[in-house]
Amino acid sequence: xxxxxxxxxxxxxxxxxxxxxxxxxxxxxxxxxxxxxxxxxxxxxxxxxxxxxxxxxxxxxxxxxxxxxxxxxxxxxxxxxxxxxxxxxxxxxxxxxxxxxxxxxxxxxxxxxxxxxxxxxxxxxxxxxxxxxxxxxxxx
Length: 140
Prior knowledge:
By secondary structure, the chain is α/β, with parallel strands linked by helices. It contains 2 helices and 8 strands, in the order ααββββββββ.
């Protein structure tokens, strides 16, 4: 098989795989209205080309025992924070103030949710079900 045909066949295979994966995910995203069975979706990095070339450093924040751990953290622009939920009760991550509008995870008790920070600043957040649970991410 010539190189051109091989590349064309490879491109069709990749495109078909992406379509199949998209349909599979779309078929699994029904809303049952039951927070205990909500599945989490991890957002992709804002700029996937840059993320593939220079993977950002990731920070994991544990959500359990009615707190975020660490509650306050510092990262650089372009880095991703993943909140890992493992508690007996559901929680979420909800930004506080205009600057943190993009922080808006689903309410879940098991799983994870990620957010890539693309601007510097301090982003405060809380759990809307347990407002005493608070944290902040400082992005430099």
